[in-house]
Write the structure tokens for this entry.
Amino acid sequence: MKFIVLLIDALNLIRRVDAARRNHAGSPAGSSVDACAQSLTRAVNECAPTHAVCVFEGTGTSFRTELYPGYKAGRSPMPSDLQRDIPTIKQAFLNMGIASVEKDCVEADDVIATLASKIEAARGCAVILSTDKVFLQLLSDSIRVRDHFARHYLDQAYVRDKFQVESAQMADLLALAGDPTNNIPGVPSVGRKTAARLLRDYSSLGNVLAHAPQIKGPAGKAIREHGSDALLFLQLTRLKKDIDLGLNLRSFRYRRT
């Protein structure tokens, strides 16, 4: 039997739960801790993991912001009361038997991608609990992405239907078409449909750029003029899988409390 590790994109979960709480008429103040704990309890009940860990953002500047200062610019800040609740939420998760990890100057996305890759290499199954489309690039037989709020897995068929590319092309797609969530503009005149068509024709961003002289119209002109930007954006959209974490999966063994 494969071991199953639930990798929780902690702030994705917490902020979604908190936003729903705030939008609910008559919701009591200060209930984010209980709401998050209840939501995570549902997640472990539905996913039945053998191991689980909550991954938070590390403090400090990531390599992406150093490469592109506009990265994630314009995002709404976390509500101050929720920010104050984060240590209590972490403790509530720990009381459930789920520890939290983070690494300074490293985004949670890269920690999760690295852990998922190590789990796959160890012949386990990683389940990434997140609604962030950036994780779709990791999909494989051993790495799954679960939309906790819609209560279903986002699989290869979902990627093909929604984005018109293969999961392995997601980083290239976001580099070409842009990712407004992270303030990545993409290549001018190249929307998501055009980017998907180009990737179906040429398979990768590198091949798109290599064939740029053959691509006609405004999209071809923009790709020829902004090829270096696209390569920069690819560095922002591609997850790192080789972060030195110094973590042992055995410490994430989940034992229901």
Notes: The domain at 164-237 is CATH 1.10.150.20 (DNA polymerase; domain 1). The first strand starts at residue 4 and ends at 9. The chain has two domains: 4-158+239-252, 164-237. The chain has a mean pLDDT of 94.
